[in-house]
């Protein structure tokens, strides 16, 4: 994912690139919260359906079951924040190689938060 924001292609992200990455993540946070209707901190099948339908996707009920199964790491039939980003990114980039499925969003979020602390603290 760093690659997506590494416009100068140096293998690292500079301050400006970090800014777009940070915005990307906070945008997703807003999206996630607005679709988490019951404020449970996770997205269930109906919430996912509402989200993806509003993004313009018409998917079968069976496909939502598959998505939930694929992105539900808690085994509770719901999708957490980082898995929700992954799920949407995967759907939006059907042509992107399988490898994106294994992008460590959680690790990325951790490093972004850690860098933000360093910069502000
Ligand atoms: Ca929810």
UniProtKB/TrEMBL annotation:
Its main location: cytoplasm. Residues 23-58 form the EF-hand domain. Keywords: Calcium, Cytoplasm, Metal-binding, Repeat. GO terms for molecular function: calcium ion binding; calcium-dependent protein binding. The keyword Metal-binding applies. It is found in: Cytoplasm. It comes from the Eukaryota. This is EF-hand domain-containing protein.
């Amino acid at each position: 994912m760093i690659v997506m924001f590494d416009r100068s292609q140096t293998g690292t992200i500079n301050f400006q690139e970090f800014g777009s990455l940070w915005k990307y993540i906070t945008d997703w946070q807003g999206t996630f919260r607005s679709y988490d209707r019951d404020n449970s901190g996770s997205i269930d099948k109906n919430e996912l359906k509402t989200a993806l339908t509003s993004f313009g996707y018409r998917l079968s009920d069976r496909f939502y079951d598959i998505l939930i199964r694929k992105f539900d790491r808690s085994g509770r039939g719901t999708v957490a924040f980082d898995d929700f980003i992954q799920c949407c990114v995967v759907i939006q980039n059907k042509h992107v190689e399988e490898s994106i499925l294994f992008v460590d969003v959680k690790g990325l979020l951790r490093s972004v938060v850690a860098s933000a602390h360093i910069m502000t603290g």
